[in-house]
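Reposting from the mailing list since nobody answered there.

I have sequence plus structure tokens for a pair of proteins and want to know whether others read the tokens the same way I do. The first protein:
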Amino acid sequence: MADHPKTPHDSLIQKLLESPQRASVVLRENMPKAVRERLADDLPEPLPGSYVEPNLRKTYASR
């Protein structure tokens, strides 16, 4: 039997957002209209660091 990731939802989101082109589509399709209208036309840029809340870090799966 294949091993499944312990955090499949995190893995899915990481894969969806790892490519700026794909992240742009995902964000634009899922943000409220008021937010979409304020987004720049440029592709999103990945930023260094972690934005996981301290109380959730024990459940965070890094790549």
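The second protein, same order (residues first, tokens after):
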Amino acid sequence: MEFLFNTNVQFFIAAYLVGGIPFGLLLAKKFAGVDIKASGSGSIGATNVLRVVKESNPALAKKLGIATLALDALKGVTVLIVAYFSGVSEATLWAISVLAVIGHCFSPYLNFEGGKGIATGMGVMMFMLPYETLIALVVWGVLAKTLKISSISSLTGVMALLISSFIIHPEMAHAPVVFIVFILYYKHIPNIIRLLKGEEKRVV
């Protein structure tokens, strides 16, 4: 058990455990009295919080959606900031980023189920690759405003981040970025299938 006293290992565990906190589920239960795991898409992310809570309380839905988005983005960044000021290596920071996203998508508190990972992924990427993330957010914002289909705007934004990372930082090791993008696309497989069938719902 000596490995648990290793600083890197402690940050890895913290990233996974903090990343796994299901803020959307907790907020919806606390303030709206609904179980978002049993409604809508079953996801614990901001989009499902907004969709499910809106059915009974549209004003509250927007507030809880924004709060979920912010907290899901911040939970990975929080561990990264602490680790950064503790002087860990860049490789360790990337590992923390990956584990925070894995924690959200496969939460230890929800029998290893979880959300789609977009907010948490964008949060850690904003810390690690700020320029690429800003590009992704612009792409996401434009598509979200025009198409109003969350999965299309999210996945296109993620792909814009990946492509721009190769252009802006051709020298870096892209494996962690590719892995995070893979996880996000994997979690969106049901959405992709619905898109292909023309059944994906708009966010209105």
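Reply #1 (J.P.):
I read it the same way you do. Residues 2-197 form one domain.
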